Amino acid sequence: MITRRMILGTLSAAALLASTGFTLAQDKMYIPLISKGFQHQFWQAVKAGADKAAAEFGVEVTFEGPDNETMVDRQIDMLSAALAKKPAAIGFAALDSQAATPLLKQAEAAKIPVIAFDSGVDSDIPAATAATDNKAAAALAAEKMAALIGDEGDVALVVHDQTSRTGVDRRDGFVEWIAANKPKIQIVAIEYGGGDHLKSTEITKTLLQAHPNLKGIFGSNEGSAIGVANGARETGKKVVIIGYDSGAAQKQAIRDGLMAGAITQNPVGIGYETVKAAVMAAKGEPIIPTIDTGFYFYDKSNIDSPEIAAVLYD
Amino acid sequence: MNTSPQNSKASAPPASVPAPVPAPARLAGGAQQKLLAFASLIVLLVGFSLASPNFFQVSNIMAILQATSVNGVLAVAATAVILTGGIDLSIGTLMTFCAVIAGVALTWAGLPLPLGVLAAIGAGALAGLASGTFVARMKIPPFIATLGMMLVLKGLSLIITGARPIYFNDTPGYTDISQGSLIGMVLPGLPVPNGVLVLFLVAGGMAFVLSRTVLGRYTYALGSNEEAVRLSGVNTNAWKMAVYALAGAICGIAGILISSRLNSAQPALGLGYELDAIAAVVIGGTSLSGGRGTVLGTLIGALIMSVLTNGLRILSVAPEWQTVVTGAIIILAVYADQLRRQRG
Amino acid sequence: MRDLVCMERIEKRFPGVHALKGVGFDLRAGEVHALMGENGAGKSTLMKILSGVYQPDSGRILVEGREVVLPSPKAAQDRGIGIIHQELALMKDLTVAQNIFIGREPRLSFGRIDEARQNREAAELFASLNIDIDPRRPVEGLSIARQQMVEIAKALSARSKVLIMDEPTAALTDSEIAELFTMIGKLKSEGVGIVYISHKMDEIRRISDRVTVMRDGEYVGTVEAADTPIARIIEMMVGRKLGDETVDVPDLRDAETALEVVGLTRGREIRDVGFSLKKGEILGFAGLMGAGRTEVARAIFGADPREGGEIFVHGRKVDVRSPADAVKAGIGYLSEDRKHFGLALGMDVSDNIALASLSSYANRVGQLDEGAMRRTARDFIARLGIRTPSDRQEVRLLSGGNQQKVVIAKWLLRDCDILIFDEPTRGIDIGAKSEIYRLLADLAAEGKAIIVISSELPEILRVSHRIAVMCEGRLTGVLPGGAGTTQEQIMQLATDRSGLGQATRQEEPA
Asked: How many CB pairs below 8 A link A and B?
């Protein structure tokens, strides 16, 4: 009985501490960032950029996001909880803009400026958007792929998600560029691996089996790209791989020549610019509505150049 | 499920009863089900082979086997727990947690390979023991207890790693655990990846435990009628905890397999793997209410799932339809089992 | 009287069993027609066909002269055929009224349930049956007898013209049985036809008009209850004559005391119960339902906790906290509810016999010696006369008597020399009963100490060397066994409430 009471006591004490934690945070300007994810390396890099800006401008930044990019409802809950704390401004990377519209209107009514980041929000409510142009970035990946396979042959895509903005944009950006520019390149398969390394590995092995003449594969995010590289290594087949984002494994694969190259966004920049814009908006300063945080193609040759190394993460 | 010869009860004189029944009659009890599952597997294999020349090739069969290895090992772990009438939802994230522990032991602490492997398996056994304690001693329903464990372990993996993967670049030979091929070294024509070898060893070991040992017999008995076992003077709590711990240790093996496959412990993976494993168990004919089922059935169930995913992809079936077909097959497999059961 | 129901040449096969071989049965309006036969004779199967649970392979069913097909229990209900199952099928968490109207709830608009009307109609129904149950209370917590009343009310509320009762009195006290019979009389007078399945001869004589006997899936015959001697009915059931056997009380004055219980107490259920049991003795425990006999047995066995009291086995005090402790001390408990507490039904005979002794068949790494287990099982099959096609047969396919023998074998194998039998012949047919009695006597003769809990007084008198009687948690007295003791003496003690709060009397045998 004593132990049970002790457990209950500890729990309620913890709950008390947690609730006081929030009130303490109110002293500084408070800016919550609701992202699309949290555990992925990419988001950790965004968070690093946000933290850097937070330190620089002396504001309190929190960073949270759902477990995976299909959990629209979880993200809406997070946004609604963040709004309830009456923040100075809010950073938001929408998984589904439509679903978030009512809450964004609520933010607008409460005069809380919203800064969209990563993929943007389909709405005129956000004061600014700090994002990578995913379609243009994927088009660059397609262009590099075309050059590496000699402008003809079969190509496949392993995409991380079928419904999210980034998944759709990167897929369409790649496919549309090929269709418009390289009629001799066939896109023979588009599979979705959820960004799961193991699943993407199995998909790649099957693709190589099903299409023996496959010349290139595009992996649309870190997990997908690593999966593609793994699958190619396990089957031992030669195939041109273009990845996306960075991370230690992907960087290693590029150094080893297993992967031809990858698109990198500027996640640190996204985080930094989002917080910076939020602070400015909260103070009522004018801001540029579209902040292009940029993207780069990197391969063995420029991976260690200062410009690229600065935006890569492990 | 009545496959043993059944004479009219009243006419069998008591003295002349001992009728010789083939030794593995217990296995034969589930034979019909396995025959059904096995037949479905063959049908799928033949069907895909006819539909695409790229399907039935050594390299693809090896790919299918390897794709089964992680899910198969998890499904074997799930089988034991499900046989007791319980369920373990934490196996997916426990696998990841064990992979992380292996990473901590090998990459961070620089321990030798065997110790790292032992650490992962030990961590799995301890976590399983914890689940078992919640279920057996604290009487928390297995669904709830392991749902809790699933989240706790997922969180712990992220906390320990700081949400960053741990790589095994400093541990030579780690990737060989699943990707190398001992069999291939002996028989060059048969490059069976070690991961598959591990799956078969784990499955064989579990089949032995379940059919030939006290632990196994109590596993079935607990699922069949726990109260009757307790009233037989058996310490049911301890045995149940042992089953969960054993399942946890096997999740540790799965953790080694997946991390050696990816050369990294990915802390965010694992969620959803438990459902694939449970699906394999169910397709293999194990009853979710416990007491009935075999490891061989589970193995076939896991193979059916990977053959299906692989074959549909090779046929370039649209990804959204792949999931529809997989779901339909699960329902169909269990329905076929129901039909067979009703017919007796 | 015209036939309410007529079943003709009903055939039913299950895999490996020819359950019904061209059986016929008819029921008239306003009669009680007893259906008798040993377990496995096919009574329940026949009635499950009549109530739409099973489909016959061939044969005809006529209800009020018209041929019908009954593909589901619902279809049977719609034809006015209701069944009250032996295992009551009520939903514990729903109220009495909700149970009665399940599937036929009176509706309001938008699919809402008219709870008020439901409760009112249930109350009216109970009033007409002279039963005092609050329709709004949950079924959970009602006594078995009351639950049965609810089942009957449920069947009647569906306007049943045919009511099938499967061993309705198995769990009832005498006063409850009397109540039930009054109700049956009332239903009869209203023209309801009742099929009454029971093993109890005295009941059959009291209430039934006709008796149909089945054996091994075959129809044996139908007789008028009033002018057929019981011995004749039993003869029809078992296919041979049974002698009237009585108990021989052995002289146990010099026998060693095997079990002594002192001051066993738990709340209101067990109040300061103490007794002793000698080697080779069969101590009967008599009393009404709820007198605390099963509670005493489970407390001794460690299946339930106890608040006070000491247990001595062979003179040594043992601390029993769990069934595992009790088994270690050599105490075995055979529950009244074999299916829930005694057997792993899906496992085979060999496994069930070895269930309490598995570790003795294992080597150091826990591997089982399957061969030895099966040899042991075959020994017991032969020794106890367990009728099973093989030691690999799943126990759920055995008859009740043979299942009971499997449980007995389990404890004998575990070397338990103190055996507690709780209702050892419940659900077991007459032929097998006398076999169990003989087995009990044999075990006692071998030196086992045996407690038999039974609600059937003839059974207590038939097997006990001494008879302990309980009432409301107290041991109200111990009577000597043998021909000198009468049912009246036992009943007097079983209803003796005078000792409430006083110390328990205890008599030693003369």
From this structure: 85
Check CB contact under 8 Å for A234 and B66. yes
Q: Measured between beta carbons, which residues in chain B are less than 8 angstroms from residue A189?
A: 313, 316
Q: How confident is the model at residue B17 (pLDDT cuts 50, 70, 90)?
A: very low
Same fold, A17-132+267-294 and A134-265: yes
Quick check: B165 and A248 CB within 8 A? yes
Per-residue pLDDT, averaged over B115-122, amounts to 96
Which of A3, A191, A198 is best to mutate for the B interface (most B CBs within 10 A)? A198
* Nearest-neighbour CA in chain C from B230: distance (Å): 7
Q: Which amino acid is it at B266?
A: Q
Q: Choose the mutation target among A197, A201, A228 for the interface with B, i.e. most B CBs under 10 Å.
A: A197
Q: Looking at chain C from residue 131 to 160, which residues have their Cβ under 8 Å from any Cβ of chain B?
A: none
Please count the residue pairs, one from chain B and one from chain C, whose beta carbons lie less than 8 angstroms apart: 154
- Closest CB from B2, B26, B214 relative to C16: B2
Of the candidate CATH numbers 3.40.50.2000, 3.40.50.720, 3.40.190.10, 3.40.50.2300, the domain formed by A17-132+267-294 belongs to 3.40.50.2300
pTM (two decimals): 0.75
Q: Which of C331, C338, C321 is nearest to C356 (CA)?
A: C331
C97-112 burial, b at 16+ Cβ within 10 Å, e below that, comes to: bbbbbeeebeeeeeee
**Three-state SS for B81?**
helix
Q: Which CATH superfamily is domain A134-265 in?
A: Response regulator (3.40.50.2300)
Interchain CB contact of C372 with B (< 8 Å): no
CA distance B206 to B201: 8
Mean pLDDT, each 10-residue run in order, chain C (510 residues): 85 81 92 84 88 91 91 87 78 85 78 85 85 86 81 83 85 78 87 87 86 89 87 76 67 88 91 93 87 91 91 93 92 84 88 90 88 92 87 86 88 90 81 84 92 87 92 90 82 71 43
Question: Cα–Cα distance between C440 and C442 in angstroms, integer?
Answer: 5
CA distance B199 to chain C (A): 22
Check contact C-A (3+ Cβ pairs < 8 Å): no
Residues of B in contact with C332 (CB under 8 A): 233
What token pair was written down for B192? 């069976």
**Separation CA B333–CA B44 (nearest Å):** 13
Residue corresponding to tokens 């209803």: C495
Measured in whole angstroms, how far is the alpha carbon of residue C361 from the centre of its chain?
33
Which of C326, C341, C388 comes nearest B233 by C-beta? C326
Cβ of A39 within 8 Å of Cβ of B268? The answer is yes
In three-state secondary structure terms, C13 is strand
Q: Name, in order, each residue with C-beta under 8 angstroms of B309's C-beta and a sequence gap of 6 or more.
A: A202, A206, B67, B322, B326
Map out the domains of chain C with their CATH numbers: 3-238 (3.40.50.300), 255-330+416-510 (3.40.50.300), 339-400 (no CATH)
For A210, the closest of B70, B271, B316 (CB atoms) is B316
Query: For residue B50, which amino acid is it?
Result: L
CA distance B61 to B47: 14
Q: What is the dihedral of CA A121, A123, A126, A131, to 10 degrees?
A: 30
Percentage above 90 pLDDT, chain A? 54
Cβ–Cβ under 8 Å, residues C357 and C339: no
Q: Report yes or no: B213 at the C interface, CB cutoff 8 Å.
A: yes
> Least CB-CB distance to C355: which of B5, B17, B232?
B232
Residue B44, chain C, CB below 8 Å: the answer is no
Question: Domains, chain B, ranges and CATH?
Answer: 31-44+53-339 (1.10.3470)
Kindly list the domain boundaries of chain A, sorted by start residue: 17-132+267-294, 134-265
